[in-house]
Design goal:
FAD/NAD(P)-binding domain; Enolase-like, domain 1; 11 helices; binds flavin-adenine dinucleotide
């Protein structure tokens, strides 16, 4: 418990009420600190307002398309099934409103003051509200402003959208061009493809999902092509032209045919949200990607300013931002130091089908270990057995040949993210392949493949 320094209005001022900021604010307040938070858009941040949560709801909607298509194999007759985008969009928006309220009420319950405004740093202990001009002082400032979609420079960017706008589209686009091949790009490519849009993914190189194991990437490419997603590799967006009928024509740098589209979704990565934040006023120099450089405790070059989450550009995932925010608050206001571990962080791509992974890829393990063993399972998920669908699942275990420790698990197939979360515990705990072998299979399941690889 800290005592508010009389010279400052707050013990802690958090800029950004997203995953990291809200967690830090409420935990710090719970430890007795006097806390305020500023939010320029909506309380909850990217994850709950225009990221993970609304995206996952769209993924669920997309999965109905598969289930409906194959329901007949199981004896169901589903006549006249149609899809209505506004119904889905509005249901998602209502849920976002609900979570936004829940986050706001959590802050209220913990007596965290809220400034619904843009805050900019004016010194080591002060911030200024953009619309009111009010200056607020605090003993400590936590920067938790997240990241922002990158829009590369080309003619016609004004006709394109990013993931920020995708949830509010007035109608389901008939044709979508997705620029980029990271997880956000491929998730939306899968969503629109499943909902009935014609999707073309455009990417600078021919590598998708760079940080994932090559076998998963290859499998996803094959399966999504089979589902009808077109890929234009080694191509950049040159120009997006608005036609007289309101549709778009996407000209690519590969010299090939332009692609007609109704929506162009640019998902070319996310950059730390620090533009105009004023950190230089407190002597903080930004990194070359615009990120706030911090030490292991989240401390910046200015002793009274800390940063957590995407703005530090370490691992841009919600659970990581939350852990960093929590660890910061515990360390500062309860004297409880917890190091955030960046090892074995599980992650998923909610594509169709989804993939998930934890630990080292085969290539990374080969670089870091003298001898590795690789076990794979290439199987037909039981759910597909009746149908003509040939989509196969693929699991891979990467094992240290010397110690038998499982270094990485890589999975693509139905429910892979749900299965991987539990398996990630084994990797984090340093379990061995012998431990996997000693575990009796849970039959019949897909997850049993994890303990049956010999
Ligand atoms: P944010 O949650 O982005 O919060 C930052 C907040 O600060 C925002 O609300 C912003 O409005 C506010 N802000 C910025 N500047 C100011 C200012 N000057 N004054 C006041 N307020 C300010 N992660 C996962 O783990 N799983 C997923 O499936 C997943 N899917 C995603 C899908 C999409 C489409 C996107 C875009 C992201 C996804 N992410 C996912 C990433 C995840 O959303 C982020 O890692 C997470 O939100 C980071 O939390 P944060 O607290 O650092 O920042």
């Amino acid at each position: 418990m800290t005592v508010n320094d009389a010279q400052f209005e707050y013990d802690l001022f958090v800029i950004g009420a997203g995953s990291g900021g809200v967690r830090a604010a409420r935990i710090a307040a719970g430890h007795g600190a006097k806390v305020a938070v500023a939010e320029e858009f909506r309380i909850g941040g990217t994850c709950v307002i225009r990221g993970c949560v609304p995206k996952k709801l769209l993924v669920y909607a997309a999965q109905f398309s598969d289930d409906l298509a194959h329901a007949g194999d199981y004896g169901w007759t589903i006549a006249g099934a149609t899809f209505d985008w506004p119904t889905l969009r509005d249901a998602v928006a209502r849920d976002v409103d609900r979570i936004n309220l829940a986050y706001t009420s959590t802050l209220n319950t913990n007596q965290v003051a809220q400034y619904l405004d843009r805050a900019e740093v004016t010194g080591p202990n002060s911030v200024r509200m953009k619309s009111t001009g009010q200056t607020v002082t605090a003993k400590t400032i936590l920067v938790a402003t997240g990241a922002w979609p990158i829009m590369p420079e080309f003619d016609g960017t004004e006709h394109c959208i990013t993931s920020n706008e995708v949830f509010g589209l007035p109608t389901l686009p008939r044709r979508v061009v997705v620029a980029g091949a990271g997880y956000i790009a491929l998730e939306f490519a899968g969503i629109f493809n499943a909902l009935g849009s014609a999707v073309t993914v455009v990417n600078r190189s021919d590598a998708i999902l760079r940080s994932y194991d090559i076998d998963l990437r290859d499998r996803l490419l094959t399966l999504t092509r089979a589902r009808g997603i077109a890929y234009r590799f080694h191509a950049t967006l040159d120009r997006v032209e608005k036609c007289a009928d309101g549709s778009l024509l996407v000209h690519l740098g590969d010299g090939g045919e332009p692609v007609p589209a109704d929506v162009v979704l640019v998902a070319a990565g996310r950059r730390a949200n620090t533009a105009g934040l004023g950190l230089e006023q407190a002597g903080i120099a930004l990194g070359h990607r615009g990120e706030v450089p911090v030490d292991g405790d989240g401390r910046t070059a200015c002793p009274s300013i800390y940063a957590v989450g995407d703005v530090t550009d370490r691992v841009q995932l919600t659970p990581v931002a939350i852990r960093e925010g929590h660890a910061f608050a515990d360390a500062q206001y309860a004297g409880k130091k917890t190091a955030v571990s960046y090892d074995a962080i599980p992650s998923a791509v909610f594509s169709q089908p989804p993939l998930a992974a934890v630990g080292l890829t085969e290539a990374e393990a080969r670089r870091q270990f003298a001898a590795i063993k690789v076990f794979t399972s290439d199987f037909r998920p039981m759910k597909n057995i009746f149908s003509q669908r040939v989509e196969r699942g693929f699991y891979k275990l990467v094992v240290d040949g010397e110690t038998d420790r499982v270094l990485g698990i890589h999975m693509i197939g139905p429910d892979a993210p749900e299965i991987l979360q539990a398996a990630a515990i084994a990797v984090k705990a340093g379990l061995t392949k012998a431990d996997f072998d000693a575990t009796v299979a849970l039959h019949p399941s897909m997850a049993e493949e994890l303990v049956l690889m010999r």
